[in-house]
Amino acid sequence: MATNLSKKEELLLKDQKSHEEVCIEKYTNYAEQAQDPELKQLFNQYLSQEEQHLNTLNQIMSGQVPNLQAQQGGQSGQQGQQGQQSGQNQNSQQSGQNQQYGMQSSKSTGMVEQSDIELCKDVLMTEKYVSNTYDTAIFEFRDTNIRNALNHIQKEEQQHGEGVFNYMYSKGMYNVE
């Protein structure tokens, strides 16, 4: 189904595209810079999803409404499994990780690479910002299918933020007090 976008909708999509391009650049660079293999893997996983987000936005800008069911079929199953595994394994892994990184408790950073901490802080802040910009854009689109596609992307951005937060918390990088 083809759709005609208003000028405002086009401008919002251009903004979202630029945000996705920044996310792609950050995850690409940060995956290379990360010291912890687990963090590298997390960044690479999110990189591939950010690339899909950019493809979806390009489809919308070309007048096509993306097929969400095709995208969700492959991604939501993976994310659901990863989220469950993360939750189940987080407590059992935390004590081993604390020992591995020389941590005294979950509140100290011990020998966790300072550069990994900075990468995580930056990408978490980026995900918070990008998710917020989708919130505004979603309400500005007339087409329900496009709003749904943007909402799907926003949910994945929020999952990225949650994943980075969970990683940071499990390594003692994020104090919730």
From TrEMBL:
<dbReference type="InterPro" id="IPR009078">
    <property type="entry name" value="Ferritin-like_SF"/>
</dbReference>
<feature type="compositionally biased region" description="Low complexity">
    <location>
        <begin position="69"/>
        <end position="106"/>
    </location>
</feature>
<dbReference type="InterPro" id="IPR012347">
    <property type="entry name" value="Ferritin-like"/>
</dbReference>
<dbReference type="InterPro" id="IPR012851">
    <property type="entry name" value="Spore_coat_CotF-like"/>
</dbReference>
<dbReference type="Pfam" id="PF07875">
    <property type="entry name" value="Coat_F"/>
</dbReference>
<feature type="region of interest" description="Disordered">
    <location>
        <begin position="68"/>
        <end position="108"/>
    </location>
</feature>
<keyword id="KW-0946">Virion</keyword>
<keyword id="KW-0167">Capsid protein</keyword>
<protein>
    <submittedName>
        <fullName>Spore coat protein</fullName>
    </submittedName>
</protein>
